[in-house]
């Protein structure tokens, strides 16, 4: 969906790493949108700088659609093998940036080839109606062309033509054909992706022994093809895409590793990944190398680390491989990485650091959330300090990180008194309370963390009461969001249950009126009335029975 130039050879003078950083930012936005709207993410590598610079406002120039005759003429020019074939391929690549032209290129070449076959078949007294019938029924001609007795007199189909040049011995022609195929792989039309099926085996073959630039192009083309075409994935798995990627992951080249991570992340998001893809990944050397590359991201290259961190995240979310990842030491390794990332923040943090922080936080959160049967514990208060350093750093410019940090904080405090105690003893509660107004989700998560602490008993509730929590909870009760208010009522219930002095203090601050306003809200009224009963008990009275009578309202 996003175009970018790898070399920066144009007037802007941007370097390759800067361009990759910009693409990673755009990919982060795509990932966020995909989480919310199930969008498909594809990437586009382009070498051109003149045609793609766009107008003065920086808008990308898209070529006008070609007519079918113009498409066929371009294909003829490419097939002639004349001296200007490379220039014709360049024109074709530029034309294929238009979606309509992409569709015509695939369709028109099929129709054109069908008519050529009909003409040839008529010469040997064969019925042409079968050819037309099969085309109308949607069956392609790729499987039949090599068997045609008059193949020497026909013109090859579009994809086969590109494959022929793609597999030639002329490196510059190979590269131009690869760029044309890459443009097609970026199409949102499933028919175009299906038309590219015959090229997949060649793309895999060329992932060994070729130039870094060529391998990178092949990887991103594969990544684009697998993301929304189940047919492509079903063809690539038997062809050995996982062993090929496992071989490539030991490449010393950052660009190759980043492209490989992109392909793998696309595969791991497929609906059949938990049953058909992840088992193959686990049986390979990929997991340990992914973990190594993620944890060396600050030294070896942040781009590849970002891609493989998302790969680990997708594997963890499948709920099929967490025990295997834990046995590789994923939890302590990722914890150590998060500490390293936080230590970079007060100094000169590298650009795009938040793009690595986000999936690392998710991996840790989801590993802690799973019941894996492994006795793994993290008891390091430095992890809390790291989380709040990250929160402080990214709160303004990258607020989405706040939610990720709070998810991890919730999972750390949910069943572990160590982190509840550490959060209080390190005096981090005021910083946590300041996050209440950040967003709806932040409010819910902050209140959930506070509930985790209050649930640990009277000593913890006493410390919460000493902090300025109650004055901040009153404005929260006035919010129109039932989920936020409901979580606030849960927290108040735990505080009043374990530390009745908090209930008396709440009443003196006007909390009784704040609860009364929710008595008419259907989803909140039962809990609000139960709390009103609790705060109505005189301080020092035997309030255990009334308090426990309210448990049903909060169950």
Question: How would you characterize this protein structure?
Answer:
The protein has 555 residues and is mainly alpha-helical. Among the domains are: 2-46; 68-165, no CATH class; 457-555, no CATH class. The protein is 66% helix and 1% strand. It is built from 32 helices and 2 strands. A two-stranded parallel ribbon has the order 1-2. Strand 1 (2-5), helix 1 (16-37) and strand 2 (43-46) form a beta-alpha-beta unit. Helix 3 packs parallel to helix 7 (171-185), helix 15 packs across helix 17 (302-317) and helix 17 (302-317) packs parallel to helix 20 (353-369). The longest helix is centred in the N-terminal third of the chain and has 25 residues, at 99-123. The protein starts with a strand and ends in a 6-residue tail after the last helix. The model is unreliable at 1-14, 33-39, 48-59, 109-156 and 538-552 (pLDDT under 50).
- Strand adjacency order, main sheet: 1-2
Total strand count, please?
2
Oligomer: single chain
pLDDT < 50 runs, ≥5 residues: 1-14, 33-39, 48-59, 109-156, 538-552
Nearest-angstrom radius of gyration? 30 Å
Largest sheet: 2 strands, parallel
Number of helices: 32
User: Strand-residue fraction?
Assistant: under 5%
> Could you estimate the helical fraction of the residues in percent?
55-70%
Mean pLDDT, rounded to whole units? 79
Distance between the termini: 46 Å
Instruction: Tell me, briefly, the overall form.
Output: elongated
Q: Give the helix/strand class.
A: mainly alpha
